[in-house]
Each structure stands twice: as C-alpha cells, then as structure tokens.
Write a structure and sequence with these properties.
Aspartate Aminotransferase, domain 2; about 425 residues; alpha/beta; 12 helices
Length: about 425
C-alpha cells in the first residue's frame, strides 16, 4: 500500500498516536538508503549529514551479509550457549581500559542506562543520581528522569532520586578546568545526602553531544571523575552517540576526556541499525549486579545481533574509519570557520571527528540564540537535499553527525549549500 504524505501523517496519528516527531515542516518519506545517501518515495536523493545509527553507512554490505548469514543459520536467546556473543564482547572490550572487561548486551540504550543505574545502586547501596540538565539518556520510567525534556508527569515517585546540574556551555560560561561544573555537582550531591538518599552516580555523555558538544579541552572530565569518586559515587558514561571512533582522535569519547568510567553504556550505532545496546563494566561491578538483580533479555545478545555488531567493528578497523573521521572533521571545521568569518549569525564552531557544527546567534556579544532562524535553516536545507538537525539547550546548534564514510567532498556539498543559504537568507532584526 502506497500512501501520499497527508495519508501517511493521518494514519500515523490514527495507528501510532499523536505527537510523533517528523523533524521537518515538510516530513520526509524515506524509502531507501546506501552509504551516506537516502532516497525518498519520489526518487529524490538526500545527503545524510545526521544519522549515526547506520554508523558504517546505510545498508553496509558487510553488515547486511553478516545478518543474512546468521539469520539463515540460527537465532535464539542467550540461555543457550553461542560463540557469537563471546567473540563480540571480547572484541569490544579490547578497545577499552582492561578494567572494562564484562558486558551485558541489550536491545536499546534505554535498557543499558536502566541497568547502569541499578548497578550503581547495587555497588554503592545508594540511589541518588546526578545528571546534566539538557540531555537525553532514554525512555524507561527510571531513565526518563535523567532527561529534563523527557520527564513524565507521572514518574512513580522516582524524581526524588535525581538531581540535575547545568551542562557546560563553552560559549556563554567557559569552564576550562571544570571547577564550576564540579561545584554545581557537589551542591547536588550534598542535597542528596541531606535528603537521606545518598549519592550513587554521575551520568553523562562524555562529549556532551546532545548538549551542543561544547568546546572542552581533552581531559576535561578527569577532575570531575576524581570528585565523583571522592564522594563515593560511580561515573557512568553514556556513549550511545559519541563512541565507536566518532570523535576521530579516540575510539571512545571518555578516552578523549581523560577518564575510565565505572560503567559504560552503548547503543544506537553498535550494529548499524540492528537493535543492539550494551552495558560494559568491571568484573566486580558485574558480579554485584548479577548476584543482586535477576536480569534476562530475550533478544539482547542474540546471534544475529552479535554478528551485525561484530561486522561493524571489523568495518571500522579494516577501513580505518576513525582516522577518516579525524581528517573529515578537521576539514569540516575549517569550512565552518571560514563561514563564520563571513556570516555574523555563526557564533561558534565546534566538534571533533565526525561530529561538528555551529551555534547560531542573533548577536555575538550577547550570544542570544537564533533558535527560530536555525529551525528555518534546517528546513531550507531539507528542501535542498540535506538531512541534518539542531540541538542544545536553545535548539540553535547545527547537529552534523553523519555516517562514518562521509567524505570531505560530501562536507563541501553541505557547506557550499549552507554558504548560499546564509548569504541569501540573512537573519532579520
């Protein structure tokens, strides 16, 4: 059955419910993908500058072949023994500090973060969680409390266990040594202690990617981790977006930021679109969780998922995509800095590797966010054949987070179009 756009939207509401996001004023009806390109139902091609789920490219042949081969052989749960999950976890943890040696495979990042919070409670005996205030970590009843934009009206009383601190903002409130962040975090830790809840963990994306990836020096999180552990808590790093070589300089963003987390959570890009998530931690923490909580996931770690995830690691290594991301990222930021020299609306350029963008402002002195203009710009780019988004507390930072095969030539296509739009569609007072 083929529907036009109006019918698709009406049937989405009727069959899936209201308030489903569609990104653009004129929603896209995508029917095919290959590499860094997407095609809509009318056959029009779009450059994908946004999607990190197809980490090694849409319909990557290695991943597709691995899925098909394993699906044609066996797919079942982990209560039967199979080599695939062991081969994958061994290969995955080899990219990390030796202390991060054990894993639980899930289907989603939400599940992974849910487990991580329970692990923190099991290890510390406390339930208080501190998180940053403009991010997203998932949508279970527990994990949704971490995301200010996602806190439900009814939270089963869980909100009492959570405290939020301002995410770093390198444009408006530079904090190069993390001292302001640590002070704010300590206030919330003290509040949890006064409430008799106690402090269990700090949860954050080490690259603060949903919070407009502020420009922070490498190693910025090191004193933060020291303060967390001095307070008796664990550091949970959510690398659902920032991992697997995306920053270009390091395989994991926590490595770039100078820390080894107590618990690491993963998701989106792990299997190039096949639903895989993970929690990685030490053997001791894993033992506490396994002994204190009964956990089983019917689909997590199944043979097909593990085959897809292993194929992603192989593709990253054999095509040297992390170094490629570093090269493309440097080129992209140089192009953006050139645009900033010529367009006053660009207030800041930032990023690392295959995540880069610009914060748009109405005035460089006051840093007033150009939120409405950014939204308009995203929609114009969509009409020009470019898929990207915006993010941050003020929703005014271009979020350019493409699949890893994205090239300098692809970046030039985007920035040539962006230059033209900024020139012909200036910000109005």
């Amino acid at each position: 059955m083929t529907r036009d756009t109006a019918s698709l939207l009406a049937d989405r509401t009727r069959l899936l419910g209201p308030n489903l996001p569609t990104f653009y004023d004129d929603p896209l009806h995508i029917v095919r993908g290959e590499g860094v390109w997407l095609w809509d139902a009318d056959g029009r091609r779009y450059l994908d500058c946004y999607n990190n789920v197809p980490h090694v490219g849409h319909c990557n042949p290695r991943v597709v072949e691995a899925i098909c081969r394993q699906a044609a052989t066996l797919n079942t749960h982990t209560r039967y023994l199979h080599d695939g999950i062991l081969d994958y976890v061994e290969r995955l943890t080899a990219t990390m500090d030796p202390s991060l040696s054990t894993a639980i495979l899930t289907c989603t990042g939400s599940e992974a973060n849910d487990i991580a919070l329970r692990m923190a409670e099991g290890v510390t005996g406390r339930r208080g969680i501190v998180a940053t205030d403009a991010t997203y970590h998932g949508n279970s009843a527990l994990v949704s409390q971490l995301s200010r934009s996602n806190v439900p009206a009814l939270g089963f009383g869980l909100e009492q266990f959570f405290r939020l601190v301002p995410a770093p903002d390198s444009l408006r409130a530079p904090d190069p040594d993390a001292s302001s962040f640590i002070a704010a975090m300590q206030q919330q830790i003290d509040d949890l202690d006064r409430a008799g809840i106690g402090f269990a963990a700090l949860v954050l994306c080490p690259f603060f990617l949903n919070e407009a990836f502020p420009d922070l020096p490498d190693g910025w999180l090191k004193p933060v981790a020291t303060a967390v552990r001095a307070a008796g808590g664990l550091l949970i790093c959510d690398e659902v977006q920032s991992g697997f070589g995306r920053t270009g300089t390091h395989f994991w963003a926590h490595q770039k930021m100078g820390v080894v987390p107590d618990i690491l959570t993963l998701g989106k890009p792990m299997a190039n679109g096949h639903p895989v998530g993970a929690v990685v931690t030490s053997a001791d923490t894993m033992a506490v969780f396994r002994e204190g909580f009964r956990y089983f996931n019917t689909f997590g770690g199944n043979p097909v998922s593990c085959a897809a995830a292993l194929a992603v690691l192989e593709e990253l290594e054999e095509r040297n995509l992390m170094a490629h991301a570093d090269k493309v990222g440097q080129h992209a930021r140089a192009r953006l800095r050139d645009l900033m020299d010529r367009h006053e609306v660009i207030g800041d350029v930032r990023g690392s590797g295959m995540v880069f963008g610009a914060e748009l402002v109405l005035d460089r002195t006051t840093c007033e966010p150009a939120t409405a203009y950014t939204d308009m710009l995203i929609n114009i780019l969509r009409q020009r054949g470019f898929v990207l988004s915006r993010l941050g507390r003020h929703r005014n930072t271009l979020k350019i987070r493409p699949p890893m095969p994205f090239s300098t030539e692809h970046a030039d296509l985007l920035f040539d179009a962006l230059d033209d739009i900024l020139t012909t569609t200036p910000v109005t007072p």
